[in-house]
Specification:
This protein is mostly helical. The protein is built from 5 helices and 4 strands; from the N terminus they run βββααααβα. A two-stranded antiparallel ribbon has the order 1-4. Strands 2-3 form a two-stranded antiparallel ribbon.
Length: 116
């Protein structure tokens, strides 16, 4: 499954610091976890990519399941995909002040270290 479009800036691929999905605010750390979860990463892979413990990731995933009122990560990924399709991003290109970089191991970001 692809990363949900609204979690990232389309021009540079960085994660936004304020993410709303279907009217639900998702904190930045949760948004990072959600983006990787929607790409099919396991808790261990997410923990490695974001430099958190696997227990922390498990807790963040549990928070996301509660926030979106779903039973499992598959339902979460499907719901997020549907919400992303139904609610296009009103701010598709965030300014540097309202975004955060993804870890290079996840991003494959060609903009890493760029000042533009």
């Amino acid at each position: 499954m692809n990363q949900p479009a609204r979690l990232t800036c389309p021009s540079c691929g960085t994660l936004k610091t304020r993410v709303e999905i279907g009217g639900t605010h998702v904190p930045p750390t949760h948004a990072r976890v959600l983006a990787l979860l929607c790409q099919g990463y396991s808790n261990a892979q997410i923990a490695d990519a974001l430099h958190y413990s696997e227990k922390t990731i498990k807790n963040l995933v549990s928070d996301l399941l509660r926030i979106f009122d779903v039973q499992n990560r598959t339902q979460l990924a499907i719901l997020v995909s549907h919400l992303e399709a139904e609610h296009p991003d009103p701010d598709p290109d965030p300014t540097p002040d309202n975004r955060v970089g993804r870890p290079p191991s996840v991003a494959g970001d060609m903009h890493a270290g760029s000042d533009s």
